[in-house]
Amino acid sequence: MPATELLLSPATLPDDAIEVARIADAWGVKGWFKVVALSPDPQALLKSKIWFIQPPEKGGRHFQGVAQLEMRQSRFHGDGIVGWAQGVDDRDQAEKLRGARVFISRADFPKTEDGEYYWVDLLGLAVVNREGVALGTVHDLMASGPQTVLVLSYEEDGKTQERLIPFVDAFVDEVSLPNKRITVDWQPDY
């Protein structure tokens, strides 16, 4: 029996699109697929009804450009996530999505409470201490048990260095997204 053709709706990636997951593999026989979220708390992914996908960077490609998936359902299953989209009705079609990069519109992210931030919003922010000394730019974050740690990059003697600062109230005085800046109680020699 020949494999079922994958028919996807061509789309344009929204200006505020953020990569949030990858499609890992088919799950079951009715078109469901396993999803690997890039965030430890994938609420935005689960909330969004429209996913934008791009082919994997490496490996087999069964589609080109950007396509839109209208999600019938996405949910936690065990320790992972599974999804099911319109037009993906059997295992063969779901397998053709393997490796696809999943993006959603930033507008689909749930609103944050005061003092809460999405990691993606912190990336690229300049970090300065109370005295105005530049400590670096946030280039990554990492979960470290009960707290998140800012991973900063900065130049010293012509070499790129890293600095780690716990993202906790004891050290973070202010996060200003409009000014693209984080002010901390931290010294360059810590």
Automatic annotation (TrEMBL):
Every RimM N-terminal domain range: 20-107
GO BP terms in the entry: ribosomal small subunit biogenesis; rRNA processing
Single GO MF annotation: ribosome binding
GO-annotated cellular components: cytoplasm; ribosome
Keyword Disulfide bond (UniProt): no
Residue span, Ribosome maturation factor RimM PRC barrel domain: 119-189
Xref: Pfam families: PRC_RimM (PF24986), RimM (PF01782)
Intracellular or extracellular location(s): Cytoplasm
SUPFAM superfamilies named among the record's database cross-references: PRC-barrel domain, Translation proteins
Keywords from the UniProt entry: Chaperone, Cytoplasm, Ribosome biogenesis, rRNA processing
Protein's UniProt keywords contain Cytoplasm: yes
Chain's role: An accessory protein needed during the final step in the assembly of 30S ribosomal subunit, possibly for assembly of the head region. Essential for efficient processing of 16S rRNA. May be needed both before and after RbfA during the maturation of 16S rRNA. It has affinity for free ribosomal 30S subunits but not for 70S ribosomes.
Quaternary assembly: Binds ribosomal protein uS19.
Domain statement: The PRC barrel domain binds ribosomal protein uS19.
Assigned protein family: Belongs to the RimM family.
NCBIfam families in the record: 16S_RimM (TIGR02273)
Name this protein carries in UniProt: Ribosome maturation factor RimM
Organism the protein comes from: Comamonas piscis
Highest classification ranks of the organism: Bacteria, Pseudomonadati, Pseudomonadota, Betaproteobacteria, Burkholderiales
